[in-house]
Amino acid sequence: MADPIKVYPAKPRKVYFFGTCLVDMFYPDAGIAGVELLEREGIEVIFPQGQTCCGQPAYTSGYHDEARSVARAQLDLFPEDWPIVVPSGSCGGMMRKHYPALFRDTGDEARAASVAERVWELTDFLLNVCHIKLEDLGQPTKVAMHTSCSARREMGVAEVGPALIGQLNNVTLVEQVRAEECCGFGGTFAVRHPEISGAMVSEKVDALVETGTQDFVTTDCGCLMNIAGYAEKNRKPLTGQHILSFLWERTNKAGGGS
Amino acid sequence: MTDSAHHHVDVKQFHPRAREAIGNPKIRQNFRRAMDGLMAKRKSAFEGWDLETLRELGANIRLRALANLPDLLEQLEQKLTDNGIKVHWAVDGDEACRIIRDICVARDAKSVIKGKSMVSEEMELNHYLSGEGIEALESDLGEYIVQLADETPSHIIMPAIHKNTGEISELMHDKTGTDLSNDVEYLTASARQQLREKFMNADVGVSGVNFAVAETGTLCLVENEGNGRMTTTVPPCHIAVTGIEKVVPSLEDVSALLALLTRSATGQHITTYFNMISGPRKPEELDGPEEVHLVLVDNGRATIYQDDELLDTLRCIRCGACMNHCPVYTRVGGHAYGTTYPGPIGKILMPHMVGLDEGRHLPTASSLCGACGEVCPVKIPIPDLLVRLRQESVDGDKLHPARVRGHGAKRSSLEAMIWKGWSWMHSNAGVYRFGTGLATRFRMLQPGKAGAWTDYRTAPKLASKTLHERMKERKQ
């Protein structure tokens, strides 16, 4: 029952890219940034056009039959033995940690296990599989980081974002109080218990603003639309970005940094 | 005492109570401050320890105990009986109350002094005894305060954590005539003085149990105030009451669990008192109770035990770390839940006690952030159990039919239909691409409001093109 130890694969020639539905519809720039970073590392990125969503919203709402149907539609997309990279700790966590249980005692058990064990959160993959070295081309700046709870606790990548930002010479990472506390997103939780979620995000935004920076980055688009959406609605001086967009913008020669 | 304080009828009213708590700055501040302190204390208490290995050990001890639970309970009963402790079995809280009343009646006991026991809260023992003409007085300082205020505990370790010193001072002034003071020492001393007299005159002492050791027939009790020792040694009769899951095989198992319990709960390396009760006063001994009883309470636990996954709920050693680290508990406080056990452990335990129909809001009141599971000293996968109970409350899995009492109560045909539609769209990539392509193309029509989401935030803005489309273009 010990948590399995992460065994990173050797740097592969190709990866599958699972974009997630939030990135697909709301933050495709973050997805493209992830693809660019991978390609710059010499990795060919395969984006299966048949992908939709990992199934998590139905899963955490208790509708497991519906989640299983959606998840099953993703299992066919990754036939070769390449890693599957995901620009989200939450969707990555769903696929890596919950697919095996979701398909236990079904005919898809083996396929689900094969997908689950190949899933990597993208920043973790860049740092620990690609051993990426970032050259900062941007102006000096301060940034705060919110690691999503699933990235932190399910995927175990709490140290990855700070390590990547630490490679950027002109970026100072500032830490907010209670950095490890949830921002209050929680998927359908945000609408089922709006007051509790609202209280959580308001305190998260205050903590971020108190660091003295106006910019934060995060591993997950759920947290991003929650925190940045609260800041925007309540006119707080805070704007957010997916960490992949931030990393790409600062190191992209064509763009000349930001 | 009012009925409302004692009957957990308002578990269904979670939403309004949570809203009220969130709007109450005093509650918010009291809990935030207390939880911040407890988290910091726990962290420093485990410094220098290989915490993951210790948690693994704790989990395995509890799992091994649960795997042999029926045998261990028989062994425990035999050993306790050999030691002169009388063992009683109660299928639910009512039966446990009746057993305790009968013991009191047989001794013509009119006054009971109580050490801290969450199982007795589960049973609403004080309320029951007062109806039988028996006075039960709480001797744990927090419980004493809660009893003075005619409230229920808001935390399983620190029952009065929802009150600050000023509020406690006012309460004690009103009810017991102490001076108004912010001096914690003075307030504690006043309470002690009042309690000391009650200890001397009590006919029966009732306590909880932290670990019941099967091999030796020992009841272990962890406490800080000495009231537990007084409760179990001063009155002529001691009744211990606990859940059937609290048994462990041997004394060896206690040391690891105790190390985890005190550090996880209050950040202490060891509590001020650790009592090991092994029987009534022997003929040659000068003190101790003449009679010792143990009441083992099921109250739904045996049903939980029958499910391989839900079984993990019973690993709990009641340290309270899950609530100390819970961002929801920190915001709404313990009373919002309307349950004996609040916070994450309450959300996975109470549905079995009150039914998933009554407790339907409990499993959803979590962002599934995982902080509870991360700190649990016996590694209960609390988020997974919350998801399991969410599935049970909507009958959401044909492969694993729901079995918890009151399952399916939250299922609405509208919500089920929405998820079916959602599932159909996301199970068919062509439909999904068509739908998302259409949505992004007509994004200027996106409504600015999106239900409860936009009460607090702006709506996320649809991109001009989906990632699918951009990746397709990129290839060309």
Automatic annotation (TrEMBL), chain A:
GO terms for cellular component: cytosol. It comes from the Bacteria. GO terms for molecular function: oxidoreductase activity. It comes from Marinobacter nitratireducens. This is L-lactate dehydrogenase, Fe-S oxidoreductase subunit YkgE. Residues 15-96, 143-227 form the Cysteine-rich domain. Pfam families: CCG (PF02754). InterPro entries: Cys_rich_dom.
From TrEMBL, chain B:
Residues 307-336 form the 4Fe-4S ferredoxin-type domain. It comes from the Bacteria. One of its GO terms (molecular function) is 4 iron, 4 sulfur cluster binding. The keyword rRNA-binding does not apply. Keywords: 4Fe-4S, Electron transport, Iron, Iron-sulfur, Metal-binding, Repeat, Transport. This is L-lactate dehydrogenase, Iron-sulfur cluster-binding subunit YkgF. InterPro entries: 4Fe4S_Fe-S-bd, 4Fe4S_Fe_S_CS, FTHF_cligase-like_sf, Helical_ferredxn, LUD_dom, LutB/LldF, LutB_C, NagB/RpiA_transferase-like. The keyword Iron applies. One of its GO terms (biological process) is lactate metabolic process.
